[in-house]
Amino acid sequence: MARGIQIIDEMMEMQGITDALDLDYIIYDIAGDIPCTGYILPMRDGIMDSCILGTDGSVTSFVTANSIIAGIVKARRNEPISIQMLVNYADRYPTRSQLDAYAVTTQLTILDYLDYYQRLEHSELAGETIFVSQPDSKAALFFTGLAEKITVTKNNYAAATRAAGNFLFGG
User: Fold this and answer.
1) Phi, psi at residue 84, to the nearest 5°?
2) Alpha helices in 45-114 (DSSP H)
3) CB 83 within 8 A of CB 53
4) What is the dihedral of CA 16, 148, 87, 118, to 10 degrees?
5) pTM of the model
6) Greatest mean pLDDT among 24-38, 74-88, 130-144
7) Can you tell me whether residue 111 is helix, strand or coil?
8) What pLDDT score was predicted for residue 12?
9) CA distance 91 to 142
10) Which of 20, 53, 109, 134 has the greatest CB tally within 10 Å of its CB?
């Protein structure tokens, strides 16, 4: 993958997609089993100003997320960047207290803990989103709230960075 994300970003910019759609967020689903450096290029080059890592509560996934965070911090050369974590299957692993302690120690924001929702699987198998198949379900409400948190957090980060120069994982 190495430069895959950077190439995608460059193609979207060259074709005018980013400007035409006035994108605030671009979501990349990157396999994190064996992290490479390709995912950090847009952050190093200043194209991205924030990152949300999705991980589960397993120790191996957590170690991978930690490696990715270290790569991001190094690539940014102490420039501001907001790094947050979304923990998937939070109810399936007994590591929440360790993740909370890690977040406090590193000043990492854990955006939220997502429990397993079987209705998500049912929606996916039916070829629908949870918002179509079960709009009033606990899972749909969770994701609506999560979208609001992401928007508020990004706006708060941008304001804090401009006003005071405060940032996570900076110098």
Assistant:
1) -130, 165
2) 59-76, 96-106
3) yes
4) -100
5) 0.66
6) 130-144
7) strand
8) 82
9) 14
10) 53
